[in-house]
Amino acid sequence: MLPSYTFWAVADQIRVRLQTPPLLLPAASPTERLATLEAPAIMIKHEQATLLERLARQRLEHFKQTREIEFKVNLALWTAIVLAGGTLYRSGFRLGATSEVKVFVGAAAVLWISHAIFWMIPIQYSEDTDSAFIREYRKKITAACGFPEGVPEPAFWNKPFWRAYRRLRESGWSWIVAETGVTLILCLLVGLVLKFAPVRS
Question: How many domains is the chain built from?
């Protein structure tokens, strides 16, 4: 049982609390209420944008590494074609008979098709996949930050030639045609040299 003085002390504190008017806080302004309500949404969008930016950077880094490997392999292939042609030329080999020309053309065609099917198309598919993810991430980051989705384009982009050019670039076939075209041209040049260049005495 509590002592009497403790009981009366607690009773006095309760009476003082009941008699004291409640503390009135100033009403929040509409801007403060709006900020309080939108703070979680803003934080979520900020976190989403940060995560998407990180993913976009990873995709971009993978794209750069893939493009670097593509360039090195293509350069090695083109160098090998030139060195092989130079070796055959210095050895005195020439494409004389029709059968030799046919064999050379067939070998060049196999090399060209293999370069396209087994190297350029797969690696371009990887690069196109990275590019598609980067564009999608950029679109979502723009939407999360409240920026306009579209970017004004020059008027000449809508002309037929440039529309075809953009479709070719977006599909990735422009790089495939260009780089396999270099392979084909080098093979043709080697063949012409081995066919028409005189034998050194």
Answer: 1
For residue 44, give both structure tokens. 């979520």
Mean pLDDT by 10 residues, the chain (201 residues): 44 47 46 46 69 88 94 97 95 90 95 96 92 87 71 67 74 88 97 89 63
Q: Output the pTM of the full model.
A: 0.70
**80: domain range?**
51-196
In a domain, 30, yes or no: no
Q: Is 190 exposed, middle or buried (0-12, 13-18, 19+ CB in 10 A)?
A: buried
